[in-house]
Fold this protein.
Amino acid sequence: MTISVFDLFSIGIGPSSSHTVGPMRAARTFVAGLAEHGLLDRTATVKAELYGSLGATGHGHGSPKAVMLGLEGERPEDVDTDTIDDRVAVIRDRQRLKLLGEREMVFVEDTDLVMYRRKTLPAHPNGMKFAALDESGAEIAAHTYYSVGGGFVVDAETTGELKIVPDTTPVRYPFRTGAELLEHCATAGLPISQVMLANELAWRTEPEIRAGLLNIWNVMQECVRKGCTQEGALPGGLKVPRRAKALHDKLIHEDGAEDPLHAMDWISLYALAVNEENASGGRVVTAPTNGAAGIIPAVLHYYTRFVSSADEDGVVRFLLTAGAIGVILKETGSISGAEVGCQGEVGSACAMAAAALAEVLGGNPQQVENAAEIGLEHHLGLTCDPVGGLVQIPCIERNAVGSTKAVHAARIALRGDGSHIVPLDKAIKTMRETGADMSTKYKETARGGLALNVIEC
Ligand code: SF4
């Protein structure tokens, strides 16, 4: 499968790429299929069923809202985040929704959208089934999808096997592993970002790539700006207070000259701002997931604010390098908390950000790969145990800590010569195997760890 940087960084909504973005995409895909096959007018009811981690923590992750708006034809990249709650309230109140914005039908959430807390579909922890019924109650279409992390949705055959339609676009420097990537860098004499850029040219022109990446950067900045202005408690019942605005208002009045770790507070601020926006269902860039969406923007903000040589070219190179490491993680590891725990989300984002920072600070490919490896290695075994099934505790602070860890990893790598004992590929293999051994209760089910020990108020 060939993965583009634009697959890894997509503009979406919070709070979860797998539980919000994926279900919205799946629901829209299902109704678009009904329209394509001329079945929309015959559809009297749609039933949706969410399984596994989606069923267990979907309420806290906004999955039902995402499904309802997806059925109405909304897409995560352009749905108006300011109107989501009002629209869902209307659907719930009237018990009606408009399929693809056209076909109005009865939709009773309690019976038409079933969340199975303890049932799982065979191919992946995040399964969804959709069925369309006609006036007589006969099923006229049914489909199963899996939300496999990062907003990626795959189709399933009736056998339950995943039917991934791979993108087979030939790229200039194909790679799946860190070793293959480094080999290309060595033979072509290119840094990692330029290898990735050469591959991206298979889909888009260079000006399009640059404009697309700078647009992603703009959305990241807007997300931070918005997060720094919002006050009050986050939605969901835990009454978690937003902290970014208060921290921002303090930091802008400090010059930091006396504090050698002043920049660290700014890094934390950027991550808190993004993850608070994410937790409130705002517009975020999935990077590579929503739960871990604060780390790459926080480290990129650090670069643009605190590195004197920073410029737009550096921003583009940063995102390309992060994307290259994301390709390897997605191809040979996992970026799904439901599959391997938080090591796959915050660990992956930290590895991507560390590598990206190392490259724009002048690291050679070996140092960059080393930075990614350090970023991932020190998240190995990290479980996913969101309190109340909400992407708030531990997720928000974990992004702040993961961001400073990424800067730290880059600095350790840049102080070395690139040689290191544990290659990135081995760290990823370890993540995958550790995830396979990890109990299900630590994989985005909110049935273990902090989720069990912290009492919900
Ligand atoms: S604990 Fe980690 S993997 Fe789980 S929801 Fe939070 S950020 Fe995502």
Q: What stands out?
A: The beta strands are 10-13, 45-50, 96-99, 103-106, 113-115, 127-133, 139-149, 152-156, 162-163, 283-286. The two ends are 45 Å apart (CA to CA). The chain has 19 helices and ten strands.
